[in-house]
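In the previous chapter we treated chains in isolation. Here, by contrast, the input contains two separate entities that must be folded as one system, with a combined length of 637 residues.
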Amino acid sequence: MSTITAALGTDRARRRRAALTALLAAAVAGCVPFYFAPFQVFQLTMVLLYAVALAGLNLLVGFGGQISLGHGAFFAAGAYAAAVMLDRYDTGHLATLPVAAAGCFLLGLAFGVPALRLRGLYLALVTLAFAVFLPPLLKRLEPVTGGAMGLTVDKLQPPAWSGLAEDQWTYFVVLGVTATALLLARNLLRSRVGRALRALRDNESAAEVMGVRLSLHKTLAFAWSAMFAGVAGCLYTWVIGFVSPDSFSSVLSITLLAGLVIGGLASLYGPLLGAAFVMYVPSVSQDLSEAAPGVVFGLLIIAVMFVAPTGLAGLPGRVLGAVASRLPRTTAAPATAAPDRTPEAGPAPSTPSTPADPAVADTEPVGAPPRTERE
Amino acid sequence: MSEPVTDVTEQNFLEVRGLHAGYGQARVLQGLDFSVARGEVCAVLGPNGAGKTTTLRALCGMIRGRGSVTLNGRELLGRSPEQAARLGVAHVPEGRGTFNDLTVEENLRIGAHLRTGSGWRGRARRAVVAADLERIYGYFPRLRQRSRQAAGSLSGGEQQMLAIGRALMPRPALLLLDEPSLGLAPLVTRELFEIVRAVNEEERTTVVVVEQNAQLALDIAHRAHVLEAGRLVLSGPAARIREDGQVAEVYLGVSVRSRKAG
């Protein structure tokens, strides 16, 4: 009985903590454009925009257990959909968002069907081919896409009533879309569909036996994921006001995947961290070495993966776990046995995996720190 | 439930006729015939490699088979696992197959994946699932304590409880248990079998359990079939097979009686 009430208590506490965190984040995010220079605000806007794409990729790779080296192509499709609409039909910015989202959803759906037959390296190769073939195609479709010259379209303009500068207004619009997208991704993962997707990643045949339709959910994962990339692409057009085939080379796809892995797979805020990495690290490495920024960038990726193999999002947990295991046992125990540990809090540092000897395990008090922590 | 049930489906609720199945070139099952009455616990026994697990896999659609398998008059062969699940088959695979990165409660909710209930939307469905969760926590109080823990952090026995609980979430017509005792301490296994017996008695769930531990399985089973090299070599009421020490010794490789004494 007491465990039930305790669980309810932690539930309410967790909700209150989450609400508080969200409020705080909103407050900080709301103040940012008034304290930073326009260029810095622009950079933050780009971080937010990449976070949307990474959140989509996270659905597919982190939670769906599939792989895509072609997400830059969906990003490009969203960007071009917005640019063409603005350029040829002068639709206004807001109308481009649902079109880019829906179009990329369908594109992802179409792509998800062949993906059903492939996995691992084969799927990686096919998706990479998609990313490689798109830029030349965009160049060939010159009447629509503007060819190699690309398209220049209007950026977002602040309405007069807002009294904001262009960079500030753009930031707030992108912030709104990003927050909505991240919230959507989170709710999706907690829904019946998201649960089914994660179950398929963990154990395909067991999920199927429970009635989860493999083909439907894997295809849907591709579609949702592509939709997020498309929305990010659309935002890109709004922010930059220019698209060209060279902006969306296959390197973009690889960078997105690298950013996601660095930020933290299957973590809810990993995409934000990964987006920051993708945005800032190349320019930092440019500062460090004029001659070979790529080398610095690559070395930094290697360094991060060594220090935080579960991504930046998993780093605090790993550090806490390392600290806890060095503390005397009496103080370490409550820390590791905290009942309110959730999977969202990043990979638990000391989650004991199924012990080899179940006979012993069954008599072991649950929540006890693993015996290997101290000899 | 309300549909009129003829005697035929009562007695042959699950009917297996001439079942052949295997993996690629390897033919494992060489034509099985048996039937299970509604509400019965049926034990499938036999030595390693006899085809016990293969039988269950063929029943739930994980592998293809030839012949005929009907559940309540509807053909199961040729269906995908997901379609078999829709027809009321719940399979607890060998090695549990829990979703280790999901919490205990999420695992159970996956069990309710097909529980779209009478009202697809909103409240009705949620109420049904909540009631089923309570029902499972009633059978397995330990799962309630661990409901927010990742399934991967559970002990072997708890994971097996979770796998069975998950399978029971949709109130299946047929529960297939594959080696539930595998790698578990004897006390834990006994507890599990008692719960399976309780479920069978309370919900009239038809159970087919595959076990190496013949003694345990025979204790809760009504009928038993002994498999050897893909064929049935012995069938009968569990009590008779249990008492027939010689038969057990010959076909199961263990002396049931001496074990009981020891």
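The longest strand of chain B covers residues 26-36. Residues 122-139 of chain B form the longest helix (18 residues). Compare these points with the single-chain example from earlier in the chapter.
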